[in-house]
Amino acid sequence: MKKILLSALIFSTLAFVSCNDSDDNNTGVDTSGIYLPTKFESEENVQTFVYDSENRLIESKDIEDDGSRTNIVTFVYTNGQLVSAKEVTTEVGNDQTYVSTEDYTFTYQNNEVTVVNVYTSNWSNSTQTSVYTIDSNGKLQSGNGLTVTYDSKGNVTKLVEDDFENTYTYDNQNGMFKNVNTPQWAFYLVLEEFHIFDINNVTKLTYKDSEDAEEDFSNISYQYNSANYPVKMNVIGSENFSNSITIEYLKK
């Protein structure tokens, strides 16, 4: 199962140039239809998203611009529930091709979801089973050394896993994945970095590693469309880190 990453790495799969404007005073209420993010593009990579007729994510594809790495995640739903996911990563280097696969299966009982993750690659194989507590809205609460804290709107404000702690602050605009009906817990467990964009959008992320006494941060600013969804984003972190991306949507 994935671990919390440094803030710079969390946003390195997104790609954003941005700014801010007077939209910060808007309420963030969308009255112009449903927006589903379909493409994040930067100088380093392009990530695309595909949805079914119920606005559920069924595929995420992330391709490095030089073709050295491709990551494809697919989701399967049965009777209205997410039952499995598959992640395949292909990397080309040193005249060899490296392929790793993670097969996830999800089963439910009351407010718990059991996750079985079977990992296979050119060099190793493993199986891990974890149990997580979720609420009635599919929000991740705890499990496997993880605890999550939310604000009154439902944004994640603190996420602690073992020795790692991330804290977040948000804008008041529409989160990029606000209208996506894939449960938030699955975004964290499988896609990892997108679970913090389902209500509003993160404007600051602070990372701490208590074991190694490390701290890091990212400040994020946005440019919004007329419906108050981000279309451009800029991430600036410690040690002169920066990243930029443009975001495209399907409007329904």
UniProtKB/TrEMBL annotation:
Signal peptide: 1-17
Highest taxon listed in the record's lineage: Bacteria
Keyword terms: Signal
Protein name: DUF4595 domain-containing protein
Organism: Paenimyroides tangerinum
Upper classification of the organism: Bacteria, Pseudomonadati, Bacteroidota, Flavobacteriia, Flavobacteriales
